[in-house]
Write a structure and sequence with these properties.
heterodimer, A: 445 residues, alpha/beta, Rossmann fold, Ubiquitin-like (UB roll), de novo design (two linked rop proteins), 3 domains, five-stranded mixed beta sheet, four-stranded parallel beta sheet, globular, B: 327 residues, alpha+beta, four-stranded antiparallel beta sheet, 7 helices
Chain lengths: 445, 327
């Protein structure tokens, strides 16, 4: 059994209430930080822990915090990014739904470290019921004095609000999130300036993922150095993985970073192997935007070493033979899966979610979806594979925000590793039934 | 600060963007722009045609930037080295951007009033390919009347956001914005509400394509058959400095004056633009300078002397004599 720090209590009845959460050791980090540590000490612990952003990019959290500008007389904000919309990722929802106080505890401790008296939890519109759970938890925390003025009798006051978004993938991009939070259209801003200098309402702001903020509590409790002992190299601590697809036991698992991918897929503790005794075909290891890898490359790196669940090992070999840990949306596909059909689903998603601000993404994502639809209609030719490759290469790296790359990478990887499948379909001219997608398309504006 | 663009070094003040520095050097190295507008704050960054490669970030940090950057929104650093037309990668990427801008454009230039002064035409001519690889149905919208003087034809729009910024920054009471998202995004006034501000007509001038057109000029004449003449009048709302577009003796339209980069010099009011279309309303200064590359300059000045004579007669009749003193 691996060590669990975030969701070890998820099966305790009533854990969503403050009383039970507190009885299970909750809010200890707030007590410890506010009573015995200075804000800089908390930041130092987070730096020592080696915690990296759990939202997808994997940027060291302590470093991000230390970039926060601290001009006199200007408020600072902590914003929690709960706009979890990456297909295949549902870990934040699980955490917030089951243990809402874990997030709120992390919010208070992190805000103390950053000197933020106001924080927001920006949650996606589709999670409205989770927003209610969080609001209840915040209400409880206010009543018990964990939020509000002079927490635990110290000088530190803190208010926390939940803001429900309209349900847009793009609002998970930190600057688009801030725009949306300010009440504007959720378009990503052009960087620089970065949010650490000019974020929410032009004030210095830190935007962190739910899991990152929740992980601050155990770090403060156990100490950064102790936390850094879990995991391998620069991938420290535990990570929530949303496992889905053709596996026996889909769900959210907390793993110690560093376990082999093979163990994660086949062990009874985690995914429990491929369902119906089928063979593994491919894995999308970190949410839909990261490159898909075929069996031989996901279980072992190109050098023949076993691939581990760490930021470094999964990225080994670059995009030629590697992928990314991303947000931890682990999608497993068995031998019967059509990569082209799956890619169409992803392309359709990115087309739908593009904000329309910059031209390569606005026009390119729609074009890619239309070409992929041709494959499913049985009207594609072999030349379309090359066209698709050319289009993705012209989107990647040319856009304002990373959504362009997120749309281009899965297309590139599918063609890189499964080109034969595209050509096979183009040659066979077989019609693939996608009537359920057409039905969905009708709903679209 | 010293910055090198395509091997040409230039000294610029702090806070200059790469694009502005390139424009200081000259039009040969200046990247093309579709959405950037020097007169509008926070414009630019959307169309991606002005992307350049930064091969050296600065003297202090000589690392190259990992991705191409939008030159209109990136400030120069001391010792920065930039590649624009000398980088084949960038030219290829720009070709891609032009292709993206054109795949959903109707290409109805033969019936479009903007033809001849369209930035997308120029861009396509310079950086696009002759054949399209797009085989699907192009996006279409219904035409909308924004007020009684402006027509919005979204089908031609490339979503440069210039008109949105114009409405935000030079008119009060914002009634104009972007609705929907992705390739369904469109410029719209809320529930087709009329834009009835005194300066709303400027959206026509800032539009790089034929999406926003002047209803008092639509389908009257191809621009290259009209003669641009600079003129002014006393106006209590704006500077009154305009450009008149003549066909014979008739003023077909009034626009703001545009500079070398096709950007408005001074925004003008709707009264000047739409309501003063008689020659006698204006004091004529003389023929406008039009770039020799422009199709508009092709057949204008064959009667330049005659035009000057006419202008002189008019000036004398009205009692103005300053005109003669011009060098």
């Amino acid at each position: 059994m691996g060590k669990k720090l975030l969701i070890h209590n998820d099966k305790v009845p009533g854990i969503e209430t403050l009383q039970v959460y507190r009885a299970n050791g909750g809010y200890a980090s707030v007590e410890k930080a506010l009573k015995s540590m200075s804000p800089d000490q908390v930041t130092d612990e987070v730096k020592k822990s080696g915690l990296r952003g759990r939202g997808g990019a994997g940027f060291p959290t302590g470093l991000k915090w230390s970039f926060l500008a601290k001009p006199e007389g200007v408020p600072r904000y902590l914003v929690c990014n709960a706009d979890e919309s990456e297909p295949g990722t549902f870990k934040d929802r699980y955490l917030m739904e089951k243990i809402p106080h874990a997030l709120i505890e992390g919010m208070i401790t992190s805000s103390y470290a950053l000197g933020a008296n106001l924080s927001y939890i920006y949650i996606r519109g589709e999670y409205f019921y989770v927003a209610r759970i969080l609001e209840n938890a915040i209400k409880e925390a206010y009543e018990a004095g964990w939020l509000g003025k002079n927490i635990l009798g110290t000088n530190f006051s803190h208010d926390c609000y939940v803001q429900v978004g309209g349900g847009a993938y793009i609002c998970g991009e930190e600057t688009a999130l801030l725009e949306s939070l300010e009440g504007k259209r959720g378009n990503p801003r052009i960087k620089p300036p970065f949010p650490a200098v000019a974020g929410l309402w032009g004030c210095p702001t830190v935007v962190n993922n739910v899991e990152t903020i929740a992980a601050v509590a155990p770090i403060v409790n156990m100490g950064g150095e102790e936390y850094a002992k879990i995991g391998i190299g620069k991938s420290t601590g535990t990570k929530l993985i949303s496992a889905s697809g053709h596996i026996n036991k889909p769900g959210v698992y907390e793993i110690e970073l560093g376990i082999p991918v093979e163990e994660f897929i086949y062990s009874e503790e985690y995914c429990g192997g491929i369902r119906n005794g089928k063979k593994l075909k491919a894995v999308v290891a970190g949410g839909s935007s990261v490159p898909i890898l075929p069996t031989e490359l996901i279980l072992k790196t190109a050098k023949g070493e076993p691939r581990l669940m760490t930021y470094e090992s999964l990225a080994d070999g670059g995009f030629q033979t590697g992928t990314m840990l991303g947000s931890g949306g682990f999608i497993v596909m068995d031998e019967d899966t059509s990569i082209v059909k799956n890619l169409f689903t992803f392309a359709r998603f990115y087309h739908h979610e593009s904000c329309g601000q910059c031209s390569p993404c606005r026009e390119g994502t729609g074009w890619m979806e239309k070409i992929l639809k041709k494959f499913l209609n049985g009207t594609a030719t072999e030349a379309d594979v090359d066209l698709l490759w050319d289009i993705q290469s012209k989107i990647e790296g040319k856009t304002i925000c990373p959504l362009g790359e997120a749309a281009a990478w899965p297309v590139a990887a599918a063609i890189r590793h499964f080109k034969h499948e595209f050509i096979e379909i183009a040659k066979s001219k077989k019609f693939v039934d996608i009537s359920h997608y057409n039905r969905l398309n009708k709903v679209r504006v | 600060m010293k910055v090198t663009i395509d091997g040409i070094e230039i000294d610029v003040p702090k806070g200059t963007t790469i694009l502005q520095a390139a424009r200081m050097i000259g039009p040969e190295v200046a990247p093309p722009t579709m959405c950037y507008y020097s007169k509008l704050k926070t414009s630019g960054g959307y169309c991606r045609t002005c992307i350049v490669k930064v091969t050296q970030g600065s003297t202090a940090n000589p690392n190259p930037m990992p991705k191409p950057v939008a030159s209109c929104r990136t400030e120069v650093m001391d010792g920065m080295v930039v590649q624009n037309i000398t980088s084949p990668e960038i030219l290829e990427a720009r070709k891609g951007v032009v292709e993206f801008l054109l795949i959903n454009h109707p290409l109805d230039c033969p019936v479009c009033d903007q033809a001849g002064e369209c930035k997308l035409q120029d861009l396509g001519y310079e950086h696009g390919s002759a054949k399209t690889r797009y085989e699907f149905k192009r996006r279409e919208y219904d035409m909308i009347d924004i007020g009684d003087k402006i027509k919005l034809h979204m089908t031609r729009c490339i979503l440069c956001y210039r008109c949105v910024k114009t409405c935000e920054q030079i008119t009060d009471g914002r009634v104009h914005g972007v609705v929907h998202r992705g390739d369904a995004a469109e410029i719209s006034t809320y529930i087709q509400q009329a834009v009835s501000n005194d300066f709303s007509g400027n959206v026509i001038d800032v539009c790089p394509v034929g999406a926003l057109t002047d209803k008092t000029f639509r389908f009257k004449q191809r621009v290259w058959f009209t003669k641009p003449v600079d003129a002014h009048r006393k106006c209590d709302k704006c500077s009154g400095k305009v450009r008149l577009w003549f066909k014979g003796e008739e003023v077909l339209r009034v626009t703001a004056r545009k500079d070398q980069w096709d950007e408005v010099e001074e925004f003008i009011c709707n009264s000047c633009r739409f309501d003063h279309k008689k020659k006698t309303d204006w004091i004529i200064e003389g023929p406008s300078k039009i770039s020799r590359q422009s199709v508009i300059s092709q057949n204008h000045y064959e009667n330049l002397n005659e035009l000057k004579l006419q202008v002189l007669k008019q000036q004398k009749a009205l009692g103005f004599i300053e005109f003669d003193k011009r060098p």
